[in-house]
User: What shape does this take?
Amino acid sequence: MTTEGIEAVFLETHNWGKAAKFLQSLGFKLEFETDHHSGQFRGKQGASVFIAEVAQTQETRTRLVLKAPGAAEPGPDVEVVTPYEPTHYGTEEMTVRDPDGRLWTLQA
Assistant: This one.
């Protein structure tokens, strides 16, 4: 399987309002906002960043989401952490681990 590049950067935050203002100060434009303290921003070169607020007691995470053509399985050198599963926003996602232990999301 070959990915088609970066789909988005997914960031969790403890303060949606401050994180949104920070990205806007860097030139990102708000594309849409949800009713649960999250939303997507797009930069001038087309890259998108999705921010979601999580509870103060929860550790924040950063995920790099790669666009995958359909739900194809990766090659034998890729450790699958979770297989493709449907998401609540209409895609399928798989989590894989790189050789250094970082998690990556593949979105079909």
In short: The first strand starts at residue 6 and ends at 13.
